[in-house]
Amino acid sequence: MTASPRFPLRALCLAASAACAPLALHAQATTGQLKEVTVTPTDETHKAINPATSIGSKIALTQREIPQSVSVVSHEQIESQNLLDLQQALRAANGIVTTNVDSSRYRFYARGYEIDTLQVDGVPTLLNYLTPPSLVMYDRVEVLRGPAGLVNGFGSAGGTINLVRKRPTRELQASAEVTLGSLNTRILRADVGGALNAAGTLRGRIVGEALEQDYETRGAHRRTDQLYGVLEADIAPATTASLGFSRQTLSSKSMQYGYPTYTNGSFLNIDREKYYGPDWNHETFQLLTSFAELEHRFDGGWKGKVSLTNALQERYSLFGGLRNAVNPALNTTQYQTSVGTSHDRQTVLDAYASGPFFLLGRRHQLTVGTGYLYEHNRAFGAPGTPRTINVNLTNPVSNIAPITFLESAKSVSTTDTRQASLYGNARFSLTDPLSLIVGARATWWRSEVSPDSVYNANATRFTKDAIDGKLTPYAGLVYDLNDTYSLYGSVTQIFSPQSVRDSSGALIKPLQGRQYEAGVKAALLDGRADASLALFQLTQSNRSVRDPSDTVNTYYLAQGKSRSEGFEAQVSGRIDPRWDVSAGYVRTNTRYFDSSADTGRAAFSAFTPKHLVKLWSQYRLGGVFSGLSLNGSVYATSEFSTNTSGVTVRQGGFATVDVGATYQFTPKLSLALNITNLGDRYYYQSIQTPADHNFLGNPRMAMLTLRAKY
């Protein structure tokens, strides 16, 4: 069932032709037309397709002003592709690879390294095995590839994700959506906002979504709900206050650990609709978030903002999942049983001021700020009794008696993490075309792990660790060749403490590294399209891996130095008044320079294909087809593989194509059809070991959405 390891150039060419078919339709639509309506590009057009972004800084900047690689999945693209959650949005973002932690949680990678930094409206949070939130409450998703420690504490090598919330509008607006589709998909959405008083100084918005959907394995399903509300008040002519709340829930029954492989690493020959797991498999998740913001606009162009966020995350899971390589002669394996709960509370405070200053007769920009983050996590886990249950894949049994949990096998621990920081960022205008960006962040970090006095089967030790005043510097240059093209270069550093320990109980050394990036950016077609080409080299050391000599506890070793290097190209925007495009290509090479630990299952290149192409295109027809828009997208990757104890699991290169069409009956009513994986491609979207955590990509699916707007 493994695809060819060669990069699927033929499939890619065919898929790209399908996605770019609107160009031919554009030519046909204009032929024979005596009069065409010309749509003049505006600033609003550029804001919708390529909005200014504050990711990596605290001020809104255009792509050309940022000396690093940035991608934006716009609201227009989210709606066109009917992207439901963050995982789907990042799968559409240039250079990002998504992998499964389990059936409902994901990790994200860029340039060979994990992205473990998440911002919401520019305020950092801690990202742990993220259950991807619905996009219904967000306007867009911004991604910065490469380290961004300047505004994210220690930062991560892979990059940063920023979710931009929807905000109240002064004018009354309302929308409702109903979606029906494959796998018994049913989705209801509503979004209402506007002024709450005659003066428009008090505004509100409320957004809700309810989703029910089956998994492709019979009997497995999920239900999610999302509710978001926000109030915004102009308490003075130059001061705005905001209060908001959101609630995200998940309830599901699934194959928690995905599929194993045969003992030789080849994929199973199975019915993808067959459910492998006990009937009592179950998971629930809830995330409650509240936030408050105060923004004041000072004279002279300065702005100050204070944000306070509180989040409570609770999870419960009870599972028996496939977790052993399959004997090909007998077609047998085992379920592994466990129960787990977690209770995680976070408080994040962020305050900054930004504005212009003058030096040597030139105008420059300065941002200074401070941040504080506190996280309290209490986790419980226990293996089931029996711990393993034999299963024959030819005739799996789901009616399995409920498991029990021995008191002596339970483990409870509490982790308290505190992080405080000071940061500054100056953008110096050295000459009219040349800007120098320099900055630094000083971070103080404390972590304390406390095992339960009764339930401590994992033999967790009490530990206290600290890092004081660690400085993370940043430097970049941007040179404007003309009004269209800019050259840039940047140097960023990585320093991130790790939470795992070696067999002596000592904390694994912090991740350290550095990235060099250089490239060219362009604002094309009067600013309606952005394009960029980047070269990067990213080096990291001390990444933690499981200690291969440890068969009982969970101990780790610090890995040797690794390097990722390559280049990226992307273009996005409205290249024609009727035609939107977002396209990207990334080539990544990864390798080790030394090895202080067995790389084992965490092989550096495991989730990093050498080639990755993403393309989305949307075209709005005119003439007799006025009101109809067509869209298509392509995801194409070369092979990727993992190696565990000499056994390789490999997914060959593949390409998938999604298509869609929307008909606008009136300016306020539309009907959209989206089909994903048009060719019903059979592939594994995420692989890990012969024992577990190999997840199939979705089959062909169709979604029909009726949208009404006011």
Structure at a glance:
The protein is mainly beta and about 700 residues long. The chain has a single domain (about 10-710), classed as TonB-dependent receptor, beta-barrel domain (Maltoporin, Chain A).
Describe this protein with a few key phrases.
TonB-dependent siderophore receptor; disordered N terminus; 5-stranded mixed beta sheet; 710 residues; transmembrane; mainly beta; Maltoporin, Chain A; 5 helices
Description:
The chain is mainly beta and 710 residues long. The chain has one domain (9-709): Maltoporin, Chain A, CATH 2.40.170. It has 5 helices and 36 strands. A hairpin with a 3-residue loop joins β9 and β10 (185-195). The radius of gyration is 26 Å and the shape is globular. The two termini are 49 Å apart.
Give me the secondary-structure topology:
Blueprint lengths: L8 H11 L1 H10 L12 H7 L19 E5 L1 H7 L4 H7 L3 E5 L5 E5 L2 E3 L1 E4 L2 E4 L11 E8 L13 E7 L7 E9 L3 E11 L6 E13 L6 E16 L2 E15 L28 E16 L5 E20 L9 E28 L2 E31 L18 E19 L4 E23 L6 E18 L4 E12 L14 E14 L4 E13 L2 E3 L9 E3 L3 E15 L2 E14 L18 E10 L7 E10 L2 E5 L2 E5 L2 E13 L2 E8 L7 E3 L8 E2 L4 E9 L1
Parallel strand pairs: 5-8
Antiparallel strand pairs: 1-7, 2-3, 3-4, 5-6, 7-8, 9-10, 9-36, 10-11, 11-12, 12-13, 13-14, 14-15, 15-16, 16-17, 17-18, 18-19, 19-20, 20-21, 21-22, 22-23, 23-26, 24-25, 26-27, 27-28, 28-29, 29-32, 30-31, 32-33, 33-36, 34-35
Pfam family, one: TonB_dep_Rec_b-barrel
GO molecular function: siderophore uptake transmembrane transporter activity; signaling receptor activity
Membrane topology: Multi-pass membrane protein
